[in-house]
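User
New here, help please:
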Amino acid sequence: MNLRNLSLILTCVAVMPAISHANSSNCYSIQNQDLKNFCLATANNQRSYCYSIGERDTKNLCLAQVGDSASSSNCYSIQNQDRKNYCLATTRDQRSYCYSIAESDTKNFCLAQVGNQRSYCYSIRSQDTKNQCLAMVR
């Protein structure tokens, strides 16, 4: 997986807590299918979208954040450290984990989601990640 896809996945994860209040129509502008499914899962709080995600870490992140059985314990099955920190930040609502994220788009997505501060979305370079952030954070 390349850095762009990692950034997109982390972006999706960062917006999970706010996703139940998100506008799922914004998810359809996301080009990456895994990220689109992640966005739809979080926006609609429907785990079924998570099972359509092919990339393992993204799927685990989705399962950690969506549905009645969502739990930060699922974050520990995520291999990528930035994604793991994103997952822990969003599932525990602890901003400090965002500052441990090295990749800037993912960090901004995390800060936007955990702090419910949409302004961070505008600092995201990846268009898919920015769209996901704007869909999730109000």
